[in-house]
């Protein structure tokens, strides 16, 4: 171990003051440079961003909206030259399109979207693959990069694994049940050991509208997933988002998508063996026996934590040999026992209740209805499982549980110990024998989140944690090369406490365990996504999502829209430029590892 800072913390930096204002703040001694903003050029021929006249064609050549997951795939092993992969989770039309929002009788009124605006939204979703390089200590985009790519709702993808070609994924446009266009609501994700980019499809239900034909066989399935939610207006222009016209289309979303970034023309694959849920992300680790283990959260109140263990083993010497590892393996769902042990229950057709009598005719049915399979197996209903991160240094796994205000007092259990859990918690798993493929393990609560100075909250940060150091709503997380845990939040922003979301360094070892320090905070209205460290720990990439957005906690900020009464125009602060989501690169001034 490196020499530890005061209190035994593994992190050495001067904490940022919690608070809220129009811009971001990083710990003293660090630079936080905006690297990529919504609309920025990704190719030599990308049109300049014109926020007053954005088009889908332009958007397809530019960085998308609401950056969430950030991954880094080194080129030739470099920590200073590689591919940045970024998910574009969703769109905020009221912040994107001028004139969409008006004030009528003092009330915010949002107009209907035109087809052109919907097309922009569809092109602003998906992902970005872009070459970046560090020059004289500063990161730059390489617009000539041969591997640069935008993935959107119109990108052709292939369903692969056990569900491919099944009747339940066939549509009028695709009689094969194998060819899908696009990916939706890509929240967190991952990079595999063989250097592919994983995009997790999360809240896909929001894109569908309309009603299933009466008595349709998918009614129960869709109810379990909240389909349709109708939050988007895409069905007004595209039949496939209208359940009355394309009843099977929702079964083609909610998957883990794998992208071979080394071939910009590759067809991304929806790896159905990993199940269909509102996938938060898919972070992975190679187990001692060479199998690869993916940890998966299903982000909904009372839903489950999963892991997937490949049948095959990882070949570090032959990238091609790994390319279909995700098509065969075992998906497990977690049962957290009251005594601190846990069991990983296999979701395998024919085993236990996953039978024809219960409506599962094959493994494809088990995977299409992953949630119902988990229900029947008696998995533990969690407080919104977000990022689940294996730590290769200490051998443990960290589960972010963001919150669940709907949990009642008679629904608490050891793994979800607080009723009306407004601030979330973090669970630490230790697989039996330190083997990530194990089907049993132990777990404990690392941290109950929230303000420790408010006794009834019941937070369990260490006494070393300052008033700036506590947080609520853990969402994304990262483990750096030194094995240290970093947690970013969604919903910590609160008018009453005058704080924003941010990135916190959380000790997991020794006397400092459960000590947290604030390293970076976002501008008003934003949430914190990413984070991701380069292999040399000298850069932390963070994603500032939906800056300037409104919502209940910020009435009068963010809404109505960027051209009136907005609290921030981050990161440009120009009258003719809207507030923009952006990825930020954090480096130590003068160079060196972060927080050491
Ligand atoms: Fe997109 Fe689970 O947050
Ligand atoms: Ca998330
Ligand atoms: Ca992560
Ligand atoms: Ca989030």
TrEMBL record:
TM region positions: none
In terms of Pfam families, this protein maps to: PhoX (PF05787)
The record's InterPro entries line, in alphabetical order, gives: PhoX, TAT_signal
- The organism sits in which domain of life? Bacteria
Q: Which PROSITE patterns match?
A: TAT (PS51318)
Report what the protein is called: dTDP-glucose 4,6-dehydratase
Task: Name the species this protein comes from.
Answer: Rhizobium subbaraonis
Its ancestry begins with: Bacteria, Pseudomonadati, Pseudomonadota, Alphaproteobacteria, Hyphomicrobiales
């Amino acid at each position: 171990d490196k020499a530890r800072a005061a209190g035994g913390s593994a992190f050495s930096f001067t904490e940022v003051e919690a608070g809220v204002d129009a811009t971001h703040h990083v710990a003293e001694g660090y630079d936080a440079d905006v690297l990529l903003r919504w609309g920025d050029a990704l190719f030599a021929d990308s049109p300049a961003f014109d926020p007053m006249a954005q088009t889908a064609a332009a958007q397809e050549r530019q960085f998308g909206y609401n950056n969430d997951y950030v991954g880094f795939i080194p080129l030739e092993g470099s920590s200073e030259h590689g591919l940045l992969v970024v998910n574009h989770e969703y769109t905020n039309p009221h912040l994107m399109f001028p004139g969409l929002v008006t004030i009528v009788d003092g009330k915010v009124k949002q107009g209907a979207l035109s087809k052109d605006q919907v097309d922009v939204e569809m092109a602003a979703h998906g992902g970005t693959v872009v070459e970046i390089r560090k020059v004289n200590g500063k990161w730059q985009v390489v617009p000539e990069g041969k591997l640069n790519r935008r993935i959107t709702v119109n990108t052709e993808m292939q369903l692969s694994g056990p569900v491919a070609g099944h009747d339940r994924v066939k549509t009028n446009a695709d009689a094969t049940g194998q060819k899908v266009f696009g990916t939706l609501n890509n929240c967190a994700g991952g990079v595999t050991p063989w250097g592919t980019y994983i995009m997790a499809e999360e809240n896909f239900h929001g894109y569908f509208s309309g009603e299933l034909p009466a008595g349709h066989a998918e009614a129960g399935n869709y109810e379990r997933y909240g389909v349709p939610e109708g939050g988007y207006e895409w069905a007004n222009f595209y039949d496939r988002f209208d359940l009355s016209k394309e009843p099977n289309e929702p079964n083609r979303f909610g998957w883990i998508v794998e992208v071979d970034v080394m071939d910009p023309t590759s067809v991304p694959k929806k790896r159905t063996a990993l199940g269909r849920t509102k996938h938060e992300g898919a972070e992975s680790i190679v187990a001692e026996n060479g199998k690869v283990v993916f940890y998966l959260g299903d982000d909904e109140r009372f839903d489950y934590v999963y892991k997937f263990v490949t049948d095959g083993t990882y070949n570090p010497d032959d990238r091609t040999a790994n390319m279909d590892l995700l098509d065969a393996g075992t998906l497990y769902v977690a049962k957290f026992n009251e005594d601190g042990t846990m069991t990983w229950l296999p979701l395998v057709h024919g085993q236990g209740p996953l039978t024809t009598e219960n409506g599962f005719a094959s493994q494809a049915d088990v995977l299409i209805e992953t949630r119902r399979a988990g229900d029947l197996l008696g998995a533990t209903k969690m407080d919104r499982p977000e990022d689940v991160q294996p730590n290769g240094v200490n051998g443990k796994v960290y589960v972010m549980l963001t919150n669940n205000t709907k949990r009642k007092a008679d629904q608490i259990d050891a793994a979800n110990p607080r009723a009306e859990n407004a601030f979330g918690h973090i669970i630490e798993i230790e697989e039996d024998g330190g083997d990530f493929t194990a089907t049993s393990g132990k777990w404990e609560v690392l941290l109950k989140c929230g303000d420790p100075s408010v006794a009834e909250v019941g937070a369990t940060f260490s006494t070393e944690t300052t008033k700036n150091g506590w947080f609520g709503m853990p969402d994304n997380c990262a483990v750096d090369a030194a094995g240290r845990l970093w947690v970013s939040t969604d919903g910590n922003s609160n008018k009453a406490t005058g704080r924003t979301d941010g990135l916190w360094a959380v000790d997991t070892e020794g006397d400092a365990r459960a000590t947290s320090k604030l390293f970076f905070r976002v501008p008003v209205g934003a949430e914190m996504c990413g984070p991701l460290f380069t292999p040399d720990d000298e850069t932390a990439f963070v994603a500032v999502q939906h800056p300037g957005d409104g919502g209940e906690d910020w009435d009068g900020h963010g809404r109505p829209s960027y051209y009136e009464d907005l609290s921030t125009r981050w990161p440009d602060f120009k009258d003719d430029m809207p507030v923009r989501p952006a990825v930020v690169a954090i480096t130590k001034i003068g160079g060196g590892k972060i927080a050491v």
